[in-house]
Amino acid sequence: VGHERGAVTVPTPRPIVFAITGASGAPYAVRLLDRLVAARRPVQLIVSSHGLRLLRTETAVATLDALRTAVGARGWDRYVTLYDDGDRGAAPASGSALNAGMVICPCSMGTLSAVSVGASRSLVERAADVALKERRPLVLVTRETPLSAIHLENMLRLTRAGAVVMPAAPGFYHRPQRIE
Description:
Layout: E1 2-5, E2 8-11, E3 16-20, H1 26-38, E4 43-47, H2 49-58, H3 64-71, H4 73-79, E5 80-83, E6 102-107, H5 109-116, H6 123-133, E7 138-142, H7 149-161, E8 164-165
Parallel strand pairs: 3-4, 3-6, 4-5, 6-7, 7-8
Antiparallel strand pairs: 1-2
């Protein structure tokens, strides 16, 4: 499977499973999704109910249709496949459905905790569990502070299992002129 670029067929990369959960940091999610679509990366998108609430609270994105508009309808329609967080039978829940890995951005401490113990109560949690068991990349972009000892222990457990815990803490050494 691929797409045409001039006279050469370029293979389509495996999709990235992308989950948006209820931690503060919805602007990070919108920006990352926008950049993945701009890079022509297929995305299997899962938005938890708390993730949608945070999108409403922190951005101008009140619905999934508004997220589609923010990313660009044409790119969304071509590269984004949306999955219901309640559907644990969807493709991202299966190790046999090949993907390039998963990112949870932002990742709430509740989601991080559930993933760290293999709870798999939702599609987000199950897809993360699959990434770990299949040894695929799993990146959790955490945003909550301060961190308790329980948060840190869960992060350590996930890091030891192969995940990357990446707090959303932008550097300022390059002297950005704008927050974006």
